[in-house]
Design goal:
The chain starts with 8 loop residues before the first strand and ends with a helix. The protein has a 7-stranded parallel beta sheet with strand order 3-4-7-10-11-12-13, with helices on one face. It is built from 10 helices and 13 strands. It is α/β, with parallel strands linked by helices. The protein is globular and about 55 Å long.
Length: 294
Amino acid sequence: MTTAAAAGTWKLGDVTVNRMGFGAMRITANPDHSVAIQVLRRAVELGVNHIDTAAFYVSPGGTLRVGEGEKRYANELIREALAPYPDDLVITTKVGPGDNAERGFYHATTAAELREQVETNLRQLGVDALDVVNLRIMKKPGEDSITERFGWLATLRDEGLIRQLGVSNVGLDHVEEALAIAPVVCVQNSYAVDLRRDEDQLIAFCAERGIAYVPFFAIAGSSREGGATTDHSTAVQKIATTHNVTPQQVRLAWTLHHSPNILAIPGTGNPAHLEENIAAGALELSPEELAALN
């Protein structure tokens, strides 16, 4: 059985993780929460030691806009499935976006709001300190400086509530802003073989500085929260047929081949898809195949 170790490792700040991780966004969709528990435990059994999550990953509604029944929070599912957590497990969460009964979906703009979101993550995950917190922003031309917000998170890190910091949905200018305040261990943006390839410069910038680049929507592509795309290029389809794998596995393999600092976080609530995703870490693509995909 292929494990997450097949994808190799990278330093996420001061800890080493397998480059094949797991994204928790989709585990809330199924009203049978036992399936999410099964997927999470199996992921760890298969060597996943980096899980991406957020307090605003919730169903019904939430980011996915799907589901029925009682509220299911990804963080609480992670806690139920995996606590007490393995010593080598790194849980990365994000703040900025928030979701509560009074305000609905909102973006934190004050130090108090960011502190509240950090404390919500702490409570839901049942930990005293968060391993990694990404500041996720909504980019608005002329209005999207992150200096103030990232500085507030750096203060919470100094207080011991956060161990390491990252940024999400950002450009190179934001990363440079953040680095002037505190170490940045990861950058998390949407990116895939057919999505936002103008990110290549930022990926190289991060690699030169030992910063992990963590793409979301590597499988979904332009379908984004809608799930795995079925709109695959001819090259992806051909390589999948050649290797007797799925197009989704080819997309993941390309992601890992593209740069050694890339960490994959494919998410799924389907146990079979979990196995396929992790197996993609062992898929070797030839120089000719990579050239065709590029």
